[in-house]
Structures are given as structure tokens and as C-alpha cells.
Amino acid sequence: MKIGIIGAGQLGRMLALSGYPFGVEFLFLDPSPDAPGGHVGPILHGGFDDAAKLNELAARVDLITFDVENVPVDAIREIAKTTPFLPQPDALGTSQDRLAEKTLFRALKIPTPAFQAVDSLADLVTAVDRVGLPGILKTRRLGYDGRGQFRLRSARDIEAAWAALGSVPLIYEAFVDFSREVSVIGVRSTRGEIRVYPLAANTHEDGILRHSIAPYRNAGLQKQAETYLKRVFRRFDYAGILTIEFFVRQGRLIANEMAPRVHNSGHWTIEGAATSQFENHIRAILGLPLGSTEAIGHSGMVNFIGTMPAVEAVLSITGAHFHGYGKAPRPNRKIGHCTVTASSPAARDKALGKVLKAL
Amino acid sequence: MKIGIIGAGQLGRMLALSGYPFGVEFLFLDPSPDAPGGHVGPILHGGFDDAAKLNELAARVDLITFDVENVPVDAIREIAKTTPFLPQPDALGTSQDRLAEKTLFRALKIPTPAFQAVDSLADLVTAVDRVGLPGILKTRRLGYDGRGQFRLRSARDIEAAWAALGSVPLIYEAFVDFSREVSVIGVRSTRGEIRVYPLAANTHEDGILRHSIAPYRNAGLQKQAETYLKRVFRRFDYAGILTIEFFVRQGRLIANEMAPRVHNSGHWTIEGAATSQFENHIRAILGLPLGSTEAIGHSGMVNFIGTMPAVEAVLSITGAHFHGYGKAPRPNRKIGHCTVTASSPAARDKALGKVLKAL
């Protein structure tokens, strides 16, 4: 069994590391000569939009998955005719477009911030009027880690926002005055088995995930999140890991976005859960029985962004596990992470504090 | 940092999988074109006694370790002059020779079965007389998984034993009527930090490890084992994982053999301990702070020997984790293992029973 992974970033790398014990082989497709996955498996060099390379990948593997979302879905639909592609291209296509994504949420009765499509300055004026202020203007496609976003505090910001982003299709969303950000990660196998991890509570800065703690125990929110996740699973006859990020406002979940893949806010599952999100993704797409998603103790995950702390400093913290991705440091680039596991939330928070200090 | 691993078997493969998160790269040396390590990292093809290849390996990496013990120590001492080689060649050399190993144990006041060197038929007659019957005649070198052994029940077996093994240096050992077999795995870093895993209780058949359970809780034996382990650490100024296998007789440990490397009876640590033996070996030889060796719940490990069970059957057992090594099935060959983790010894034993039934 050989699995092709489109994208050889850290997610693909961790997928391969967790999949090798099943006796699976991997082949990555990535344009970068020193992509993180390339250190742990063979890599086919080519762009995600290179039809010839995508075809070559499809011809050389039994099954394709991905670690990036900016893959042209039309090209994917072509190769998916001959080689199984999971999660389903439709789910990937939906997640690539914030408007399609929020429209899906609305159709599935998953609460979202108020939103409106914006394709012209006039649209933006109307959207601000209907959705209200403050709000965020976002590119519909190719936004990640806070890129392609403009926050509007008053009507005076409309022209600047349009000038900054107006060359591409946009969506205007109400700003949610949230008390917390959480994410739910679940997995559904090709055989229909479903497991859901406990919620993670996430802290972003400048649109980039800085750290997460898990499990974030709140029985009501956990139940809501699982219900929403299952609606998305059903819609796509989904297979693989699926992540939904939510805002929490007044004890209710408001969906921000979904990712049809393993997710940064689930890295804690490597040491902190009975089965990691990476292993369960591989199990799910291979149609194997899923592993328990139960948390083992209390975990905190901290991203290394831009610069790498000394490994010694991190590992001298009790319960700390280090994950470097083999990437060159660069501002705002995720180049590694650390997970601390502890037997109580207080011990976890203490360890987490030490990691943040070591950065 | 690039680590060379002599031997690309399953142990080397699991070392690499656990070392990648530190941003380490690996290069294996192995004569086999389809060695398990070769699926997860680059491999230099050559024999363990090929001086040119050993030199090439040494020149291309920063540090060398090994997953096999049958490496000529003289060649190793040469390359160790220029490239750090851990655990120390002296420890490797001692473990290669059952007589040197047992002589070391005796010198360190670690109890052993009665033993005597045998280099002639006359020696064997004397040894049987002094050590007693029943006993086991073993080759001093290159024995593993029960190979190179002959059990003597009476003096009438002497000639047959000599005929079977007499062409090489031998050791005759008293047969220990043990109540249990246990192993202790500990780790010492280049900075002198030491951690010890809880004991595993092991079941062998035909000299091959079939299954282990861990932790095997017995405070008295644990303390004895740790004391003995530390004596060996001190003797070699040791760095890396060290395993000692013991017989338990009348509540006391009797050392059977040591392995200066990660060990089959420690595979449970991947899912069953806070830090796996593989990760701690890498931490130790890199001089990084060691990870906790505490057990998480109760684990059982079952080897897949000769034939591989269906992955589905294994993973449908609650708490089961599957590890295939990418090796072709062959009689008496270890081609994979499974670890079950559970919250109680009873639940573990139940799961273990299911795995054994699935074989």
C-alpha cells in the first residue's frame, strides 16, 4: 500500500511518521526541494497545479490524501476518477472558499457569524450596512494564518479595506466578540466509523495559532461540536480527519472555518491522546478500525513560530516533547512545536508557562 | 545533526521514526536491500564488517549508534576514534560475548547462573560436573532468539551437545528453574542523567520473545534491577538505552544477558510510557534531557513472528496499536508487533488474550 500526499509540509511529515507502522509507504508531491516531508520519505517535485505531476503521483500510489488545501480541485477531480482521493474533493473544494464554507454551515444549521459575499466596493458598502461593524473583510480563497484579512472598525475603513483586498472575490463577516476559541477534531473512516477528540482551546496572535490546551472540558460545547461535525461528515460521506474551528460566545459555538485535514490544534494528540490525529487519519482513509480519541492527562501545545528555541531548554521542562519540522526559520513561519503532558490542568499550565518563557 | 545507524532492522527503523521530531537526519548501514529502515530513511548498502563502508558511514554522519550487536568491535574502535560511537564500543564488545558478559556481571556482583567457559569436550565434561545439570551449552558469540543453544538434561547429552556446537568457543550455564522472566530497560545520557523504565515481564517460546506485559510491579525487584543497571552504566560511562534480562527465582533476580541497545521487551514504551525507549535513546546520545519513563496505564506487547495477522483484526481490539516492520514473512522472523494499552491489568490481559487469538 502506497499513499500519495499532496504537500510535504509538517502535516504530511507527521502523517508519514505515524503511517509507517502500518507498513504503508508514502510518496509526497511538493514544489519545495527541502520540504519537511522530504526528510522522512520520497518526494516528487512539482507544483500542486502541475497536472502532469499530479497524474504521475496518482499513477504511482494506491490512494491520495493531502496536507495543504490550496490544490486546484478541478485537477483533483480528474485524478480522483482513477485513484481514490480522501477526504473527498468536494469537502476540499468547499473548504477552499470561505463563502462556500459558510454557506454550507448555514445549510447544515451550524451557527456562523453574519456574512455576505463582496465582489465590488458597492457590495462592501451594502455588506457593512447589513452585517454591521466591526467586521472582517477576507479573501474567499488562499487565506491562512491571518493572511488576506482586513478588519473594519468603522465605515471610514471601507475604502482602505477595498484598496487592500479588492482585486479578488471577498467575504465580509461580522466580528465575533468571543470569550474563547475552540476547535473540534473528528475522524470518520471509509467504513463509517466516527470518533471525536475532546475540544482544544486555542490562542491565536496575529491570526496564527500560538498555543492550545486540551482537553478543554465543557460537556455542552463538546456535544454541540460533535453534532456539527457529524453533519459535515454526512454531507460529504467524509473519510479522514476533519477540523472545525469555533468562536465561543455566551456559551454557544459559532463556526469560523473548517479544515478537511489534520490540524495544528490537534498536534497535542501525538502524546496527549490514546491515538494521534495523524494515525487516525491514516486508519480512516485505509478503512481500518479507528483508535481511541480519549485524552491521556492534560496537554498543552506551543507552536515555534519564526525562531526555534534551544531543544535542551524545552526538554528540560517536565513532560515536554519536542517536534522540529526541519524547516529553515523565517518570520511567521511555523517551524516546530512542543507538547507538554501533565496529570492535572494546573501542572499543565505551569509547564506551558515555562515553555512560553523558553521561546 | 545526522546520526548513522549500523543496522536497518526494525529497531533502527523505530529509532529513526522517533528521532525525526528532533530535526535529526539518519543514514543506515545495512547489507539488505529491503531492510525495514530503508523505507523511512536513506540507506548505505554494505556489510557490518565492510571497513570501507563503515568509514564512509562515519565520514557522512556526526554520531553513530547501532541496532544490531554483531558488528566487529575492532572495526568500530577504529571509526570511534573520529566519530562518536554510542553506546560505547566496550559495552558492545562485552555484550557480544556471553562469557565476557557473565564475567562482567560477576565482577559487578550481579547474580548470574553458574557458568563455565567451554573450549573442548574435556572442558564440557568438567563444566557439567562443576555447574551441574540440567544446563545449557551456548555459543559465546552470535547467538540470538534462542539460536546456538543446546540444553543438556543428563551427562548422556554431552557428546551430542559438543557435536552440535563444538566448533566455536562456548559457555556452559546452569539451567535456572525460574518462576518468571523480566527485563529492565534504563537510559543514561552523555550528561550522566539516568532514568529507568518499570520492569517488563516476558514470555519466550523456543527462545524467542512472544509477549511482554509492563509495568510488572514489584518494588523489591525493581530496586534490585535498577541497582544492577546502574553498575553497568558506571562501568562503561555508558550513554544510550541498556537492557538487562533476568530470571526471577525465589524472589531474586539472576541476570541472563544484557543488550546495549533498545530492546524488543521495551516496544510497549511507544504507547505505554511517557517517553518511548527509542526517543530516550536518541535524547541520551545527543546529550538532551531525558524524558519521563513512567508507564501510562497497563500495556501488553505481542510479537508477530513468521506471519502477520490481519491489521483489521488487531485494530478492532480496544487499545491496540499495530507496528509492521515492512519485512517479508519468514518462519521465526519478527515482522511486527502489537501493543495494547488499558487502564487496568485485567483489561490489559483481556485485550492481550484477544491479540493472541487473532494470530
What is the oligomer described by this structure?
homodimer
Structural class of chain A: alpha+beta
* Tally of helical segments of chain A: 12
**In sequence order, what are the helices and strands of chain A, one letter per element?**
EHEEHEHHHEHEEHEEEEEHEEHHEHEEH
Describe the structure in your own words.
Two copies of one chain form a homodimer. The first copy, chain A, is an alpha+beta fold and 359 residues long. Helices cover 32% and strands 28% of the residues of chain A. Chain A contains twelve helices and 17 strands. Chain A has helices spanning 10-19, 51-60, 73-80, 89-95, 98-107, 121-131, 158-165, 219-236, 269-272, 277-286, 311-315, 345-358, and strands at residues 2-6, 25-30, 43-45, 63-66, 115-118, 135-139, 149-152, 170-174, 180-188, 194-196, 200-205, 208-214, 240-249, 252-259, 298-305, 320-324, 334-342. In chain A, strands 9, 10, 11, 12, 13, 14, 15, 16 and 17 form a nine-stranded antiparallel sheet that branches. In chain A, helix 2 runs parallel beside helix 3. Chain A is globular, with a radius of gyration of 20 Å.
